[in-house]
Prior knowledge:
heterodimer; A: alpha/beta; Rossmann fold; 6-stranded mixed beta sheet; 4-stranded antiparallel beta sheet; B: alpha+beta; 2 domains; 10-stranded mixed beta sheet
Amino acid sequence: MTTGSIEAGEAKEAKSEGGAASKAGAAAKEKGDGKGKADAGGPSIVTLRKISRSFQRGRETIQVLDGLDLEVPAGSFEALMGPSGSGKSTLLNIIAGLDRPTTGDAEVAGSNLSRMSDGELAKWRSQNIGFIFQSFNLIPVLTAAQNVELPLLLTHLSSDERKKRVATALRVVGLEDRMEHYPRQLSGGQEQRVAIARAIVNDPKIIVADEPTGDLDRKSADDVLTLMERLNKEFHKTIFMVTHDPAAAERASVQRRLDKGALQ
Amino acid sequence: MIPVQYNIRSLMVRKVTTAATAGGIALVVFVFAAALMLGEGINRAFGSSGRQDVAVVLRNGSDSELSSGINNDLVNLLKGQPGVSPDRAGEGGVPAVPGVIGEVVVVVSAEIDDGSGGTTNVLIRGMPAGGMAFRPEAKIVSGRAPAPGSNEVVVGKSITGRFKGISPGQSFDLRRNRPLQVVGVFEANGSAYESEVWGDLDVIRTSLGRSAGVSSVRVRLASNGQFSAFKSAVEADKQLGMKATRESDYFRKQSEQTSGFLVGLGIGVAILFSLAAMIGAAITMNGAVANRSKEIGTLRALGFSRLSILISFVLEAIALALIGGVIGTALVMLLASVEVSVLNFQTFSQVVLSFRPTAAVVVTALVFSGVMGLVGGLFPAIRASRVSPVEAMRA
Lengths: 264, 395
């Protein structure tokens, strides 16, 4: 899929609002049992085999993940829950190519991340992963449009093409009238929507979200979750979300639970 | 690449730290550029004092006109040496230009006219008729030229009004009861001549009881290329006991000590200051990296490479330093109207120097500030490039 498909999706929605929603409706009803293979239907886009991740703290070795296996089908919307310190963020970091497992194989979006160098991982992330962070992580000195444009600066697109894509992404999140606003001039919910526009502007295969509603009030959280559902159903983005919030997890098609480094 | 606006606006957001660091760098650039401008001023004063087609002849063993002495009869012998331009007769209002002139050079003690009561040395040059015509760059700018054979003198533009009695309409004593009357002011293309007093050769050397000789001889060559032949001939003649130097080389050598000392001192101080400024820039950039680790982590997570983070922060440090560099360079231009009087170590007389702004000074000062930014910002930028993308995930 390309960003063009986001544009196409947009046009399609304008013609028939119900069409895209009903197409993805079946997937939305499928709730996984949180164990083993998820049942969203498509081939796996994330395959983790015997993943372990440990950290050294002084002389002590802390085992965060221990022999974990996971498959995430393409096009699914998964929520990962679990108590603090259970290894959720570590798992998310490995899937997103921010961190490497100590042992085991991580194959994501067709690439084996365990064997990539730092530079290769950075390039891979820029092409395959969209990030949604708990505290939005917008660059405060750049406007909404410039923030959204950041991932496109790593491509060979012309300035005009980049501007077009930025406008499309901001239109998808309903903030086309806030392009020249700085993050401090936006509400929390709007900031997170700009961050989502930044996450989709490069048309990544997977969107990883780390507590995307953690810093938002209920109303804004609902808006953001609705937007994420739409990205999943309408634009067929695979979404892997870490959350503490049961209401947020409820919106995902698959819910998983991690405890003491292993999926329950 | 990370957009440059990111760095520029990041600097603008941190107004106080940016201003403090840029201010420190501006101070260093000011001192550095001032030293360079003084160097340019010295180069102009001494560098433009000499001509390529004029040879200065001194007694063997002398380094300056002050310590040299040549008998009158030997002066005439020089006229017959190879490469010497013959006397040019004056016609139609154009003054005669001699091919060879012998001059006497002395220093007198003069009271500085600033109320301090301090004294310093002023260089007096006694020249024969045609001495001014020998130097086409010299022009009377106020008053008139001294009458030949009189005790009248003209004073260089740089020192007029600086010493008691050495201004048009005033007089001063060469020796007790041997007054010299100032009748005019001359300029000589900003050269060191403008720090001298010029009068009649015979009056001055008679007053000093040195009628038998001159301090130095200047020889106008038929062309620049004749110098080697002239020099070889003069120095090969043991009877003469003289040495010849191109006038431009002579003045350059004269200025080396003064120039080396002043410019060296200025640049030395600036380099010392620059260490402090670079540490300041490093501290500022280090703080910026620490405060922005989440931003940097986010950029890394989005896919920006370590190298692009490194370049971005180095550019930010250079931009910060350039802000200081531009301020410092702008401020130093105020010195362009300032003149300083310094002692020429060769002649022990005062030379008035100006701070000369040139394009080369501006470019060098800005490059210097950029280098300070580069050096000061490099290690913080390396630190920034090592920020893990996982930092982006920290709440």
